[in-house]
Structure formats: structure tokens, C-alpha cells
Amino acid sequence: MSQRAEKLAALHRDILACRACQQAGCIETAQPVVSLAYSPSKLRSAAGRAMLIGQAPGQVEQAAGAPFAGRAGCALFRWFERIGWHEAAFRRHVYITSVTKCFPGKALTGGGDRPPSPAEIRLCRPWLERQLETIEPGLIVLVGRLAIELYLPGRSLDAVVGEVFARDGRQVLPLPHPSGASRWLNAPANQTRLDRALDLLREQLGAPPEDATA
Ligand code: SF4
Hints:
Layout: H1 3-16, H2 20-23, E1 50-54, H3 59-64, H4 71-82, H5 87-93, E2 94-98, H6 118-135, E3 139-143, H7 145-151, H8 157-160, E4 165-167, E5 170-175, H9 188-205
Parallel strand pairs: 1-2, 1-3, 3-5
Antiparallel strand pairs: 4-5
Helix pairs in contact: 1-6
The chain binds iron/sulfur cluster.
């Protein structure tokens, strides 16, 4: 096992033991989700390593113990298949995480999951920072508004999807959330933005590596 893989395994043990949001009364039960399918690897592109940041796990992800394991994940991986990255290769070579690592619960108004609160985001931020330190990604894919807000605050989806941004020495590539609840994708102009973003992602990722580790 590489040094990076050992460091990541230790970090995952720490994250999985975290109950900060439960202790703070933000969520009923903390059950963190981390990506165990990832094997630290260098891409066939200048990006080096890549990381994807989503919003938060849902109930399906919590039960499966893996990020993007539900319907939104199916839609996301269908996008990636369009650019030659099948789910297994993507999970293995791109580290998938989220702004917060625990299912926040359902929205009181119905219509899906509650977005993590500012308190949950603040409590979970140190884990995200440690994930960034451990993976050292040259490319960060941001999925959905909450993740995009971390790097491109106050920017609309229309303004950022289909572009790549340089932030802190890294390339940052925003994508809309693939959830069916997002109506943003219904507009033809936004489908064109998504197509452009996926083309850029293909350029940034290159072809899936065979078995490179780092
Ligand atoms: S969301 Fe993050 S900070 Fe909160 S309990 Fe889960 S792992 Fe800990």
C-alpha cells in the first residue's frame, strides 16, 4: 500500500468515527460515508489526481456506505460514461466525497433531502481540508450549488457550468447536481452548458489509467 493510501485509510477511520453533528444536535444520527473504492492514482493528464465534491450523502448512500450510490449517482455516472469513464473506473481513479459526510435528513417541506446547514458545513470542513491535503488533487469537480459555493461563491450555475477555473493552484470544474429535482437541466441552453462541461472534464481527466498508483 502506498504512503498516500495508508494516510487516506487512517483519515477514513477518523471520519467514520466522527459524531460531531450528532453531538451538536444538528442531525439525529451521524453515519459518515467515505469512498472506499478509490485507489490513489495519477491520471493520464496534467491534473495528476482528481477529486469530486458533491453535497452530502442521501439515505441510499448512507445504507450503501458509498457516495453517489442512488438515483442521482446513476445519472452522474451516465454523464461520465458519455466521456469514456465508466463507473468502476471513475470510482477507482477519482476520489469522491461531499461537503458534509453524513445524511442530513429529509427536508421538512418534502421534495428531497435537506441541504446541510451552515453549522454542519462548518463542523465538517476540517475533514474536507484533510481529504484535500491527502489526495492533493490537481482537478476538483464540483457537483451542485453547495459544492460550487466553496470555490465560486455567489456565482450562478449558468455562469460557471461549461468553464474551468484556476483556484489555489488547482483546476476547478463545476457541474450541476444530477438529481431529477434540479430543473436547471431542463433548459436546452443548460444542456449545451453541460455538454461543454463534460467535454472539458474529458480533457482534464484524459483516458482512464490502467493501474497507475501514487
Ligand atoms: S457531517 Fe461531518 S462533521 Fe458532521 S458528523 Fe458527519 S463526518 Fe462529522
